[in-house]
Amino acid sequence: MNIILLGPPGAGKGTQAARLVKERGMVQLSTGDMLRAAVREGTPTGLEVKAIMAAGDLVSDEIVNQLIDEKLASLSPDQGVIFDGYPRTRAQAEALDGLLAKHGRTLGHVIELDVDEDALVDRITGRFTCAKCGEGYHDRHKLPAVENVCDVCASTEFKRRPDDNEETVRTRMAEYRAKTAPILPFYEARKLVARVDGMASIEQVDAAIEAVLGLA
Ligand code: AP5
Ligand code: MG
C-alpha cells in the first residue's frame, strides 16, 4: 500500500504518518525531513536549499524527485510507503508516477487533510519535537507528561523548526494554495482522493485514515 498525505503546513501529515509507521509498519518518506537532514549535515543539497526553506518557498522539483528516487531504491517493494509533503507540484506528481512504475509500486490513496488555515498558524507556532527521538509536542495541545522530559525516550532536549514562525507559515500556505492544491484534480480524475477532516482530534483523524485504508 502506497499513499500520499496531502494538506497545507500543519495539517497533520507528519503526525499521521508517524502513527502509520508505528501502528502499521509503513515507511514515511517526508521530503521536508530529508531536506532538513541535508541542511543539518551541510551537504551540497543542504547548502542549496537552506535559505529557500527558511523563507517558506518550494525547493526545485529536481532535488525532491531525486531524493524520493533514492529512498524508493533503498526499500523493498513490499514495504508500504507514506509520501508526506511530496508531491507538491504538478511536475512532482507526474515524476512520482514514473518513479512508482520504476520501483514496481502503485498508488493506493491520496488522503487530503481538510483544515482551517487560521487554526494551523496556532498549531505550527506551538510545535516542538524531541531532539533525540523526534516525538512531536505542542505548547498548548500536547505537552510532555513531565515538564521538559520526552514521554518516549526521556531526553530533556527539544527543538523547534526555523520556518515555524507566522510570517514563513503564511508564505508556506500561499505556496500550498498556488502550487500544491491544484494537483488534486490530477488524482481526482483517477478516483484516488479521499478527504478527511483534519480539524478533528489526532485520534479521530487517525481513525478516519484507517477507514480509508480499509484497516479500521
Ligand atoms: P514540510 O516539512 O513538508 O512542511 P509543511 O508541508 O509545511 O508541513 P508541516 O511539516 O509544517 O506540517 P504537517 O502537516 O506535517 O503537520 P504536523 O503533523 O507536524 O516542508 C518544509 C519545507 O521544505 C517547505 O516549506 C519547502 O521549502 C521544503 N519542501 C519539502 N517538501 C518539498 C517538496 N516536495 N517540494 C518542494 N519543496 C519542499 O502537525 C503540526 C502541529 O499540529 C504539531 O504540533 C501536531 O502535534 C499538531 N497536530 C497535528 N494534528 C493535529 C490535530 N488533529 N489536532 C490538533 N493538533 C494537531
Ligand atoms: Mg511535516
Report on the architecture of this protein:
With 216 residues, the protein is of the alpha/beta class. It is built from nine helices and eight strands. The protein has helices spanning 13-24, 31-41, 44-55, 61-73, 90-102, 117-125, 166-180, 184-188, 202-212; strands at residues 2-6, 27-30, 81-84, 109-114, 127-130, 136-138, 158-159, 193-197. It has a five-stranded parallel β-sheet with strand order 2-3-1-4-8. A hairpin with a 5-residue loop joins strand 5 (127-130) and strand 6 (136-138). The longest helix has 15 residues, at 166-180. It is globular, with a radius of gyration of 17 Å.
* Total helical segments: 9
Bound molecules: BIS(adenosine)-5'-pentaphosphate, magnesium ion
Q: Into which percent range does the helicity of residues fall?
A: 40-55%
Which class best fits the helix and strand makeup? alpha/beta
Largest sheet: 5 strands, parallel
Give me the strand/helix succession: EHEHHHEHEHEEEHHEH
Strand order of the largest sheet: 2-3-1-4-8
Average pLDDT reading: 96
What's the gyration radius in Å? Answer: 17 Å
What fraction of the residues are assigned to beta strands by DSSP?
15-25%
Distance, first to last CA: 15 Å
Shape: globular
- Total beta-strand segments: 8
Unreliable spans are: none
